[in-house]
Amino acid sequence: MPSLAINVESLTKIFVAGAAPAVDGIAFAVPPGRICGLLGGNGAGKTTTISMLLGILVPTSGRIELLGHDMRRHRFRALPQINFSSPYVDLPGRLTVRENLTVFGRLYGVRDLASRIAELARELELGPLLDRKTGSLSSGQKTRAALAKALVNRPALLLLDEPTASLDPDTADQVRGLLENYARREGAAILLASHNMGEVERLCAEVLMMKTGRIVDRGTPAELIARYGRDDMEQVFLDIARREEA
What we know:
Layout: E1 6-13, E2 23-30, E3 35-39, H1 46-54, E4 61-66, E5 69-70, H2 75-78, E6 82-85, H3 97-107, H4 113-123, H5 139-151, E7 157-161, H6 169-186, E8 189-193, H7 197-203, E9 206-211, E10 214-219, H8 221-227, H9 233-242
């Protein structure tokens, strides 16, 4: 295992020449086994950053190294060890949950795939849903199916966008416990984009605060709460979001 799961240097993305960068020279690192929060309002640059990490977008400049691999030169060495989940990216709706997990598991070359699917079904309470078409599921059920897809290959690096969106409080709490245990047990790094500040306080060892494409502050939740003299991360988030640019 490399010393860093994510190492980003001077990462920039400009979509239109002459326009403000969507991501503006950011740098951060995440070691194995750590859950790191990537926070910011709409348009802060979170989704663009994650898209560049996944290789969906090509950076304008800067360097991304994931699990010891330079993503510009050796992307396909890293991708089998990475996975991603977002409730805003649908799995194929005409396939059942089992069929979706089978397709993605085969793409990742997962061994003993039937056992892995059964294990995920137990952990995410998907058993009664496995043979239902994914498009027929509720929003919360789709979120759990997407998380199962993201975990099917036991990734060393997991990128999550709002992983508990649409889940009821009890299921969301169980999912957070699952993610904590997964990072600890597997030594996996997790980069978590979330608007649920209670979730961030519970899960994240470090938080990166983004605004207008830049990382404007960082630290543990406790450090940020103390720095801003607030009671919780939601108040810190609002302080940063409403602060005038210098």
